[in-house]
Amino acid sequence: MHRSMPNAYNRYSMAQEKLSENLLNTIQVSTWNVNGLQEGTKKHKVLYHLGKWSSDIVFLQELHFKTGQIEFLKRQWVGGAFEATLSSRSRGVGILINKRLPFKSLSQATDKYGRYLVLRCEILGELYTLINIYKPPISDLNFLNKIQSVLDRVPTGIIILGGGSEQYIQF
User: Fold this and answer.
1) In this structure, are residues 163 and 131 in contact, taking their beta carbons and an 8 Å threshold?
2) How confident is the model over 138-158, as a mean pLDDT?
């Protein structure tokens, strides 16, 4: 009986599939309301703790950053840093991606009030949508409809939702 050996492509494809299955079972996701990161000492403490957690994806709420300040967090273990900010130093959400995670950003959507960030990406060639939500106590829930309309326009793949609200949100 003749057994055929898998060609290089099939071996590569099987290895990618196995790695993808293992990664899906082991992606470490954290979410943290940092209540402002304007103070330099606090930024360093947050980075220190995040490094200790060994998270692959981190959802941060209440950054209180102006646009572009998230780049400060893109150091050490952080490979990707994405943000949704308000023009003043309040609100704001961010998503940090560990550089060891095979990641490719495809698109992102935010609202002008820094309450959500929807990040479409590929992780090991699979489509993911990462959603970080911060709902301040005085805002209405209409922004959830905006998130839904963003999700309705494009394929989402696997959805990972992080963030928080000071109220119960039912989807």
Assistant:
1) yes
2) 82
Distance of CA 124 to the CA centre of its chain: 15
Q: What angle do CA 92, 137, 151 make, to 5 degrees?
A: 55
As a whole number of angstroms, the distance between CA 89 and CA 83 comes to: 13
Q: CA 67: distance to chain centroid?
A: 17
Residue 126's alpha-carbon distances to 45, 47, 109, 134, 161, in angstroms, are 33, 28, 19, 26, 17
**pLDDT, averaged across the chain:** 77
Dump strand ranges (E) for the chain: 29-33, 57-61, 78-84, 93-98, 103-110, 116-123, 126-135, 158-165
Rounded-to-integer distance, Cα 60 and Cα 30, Å: 8
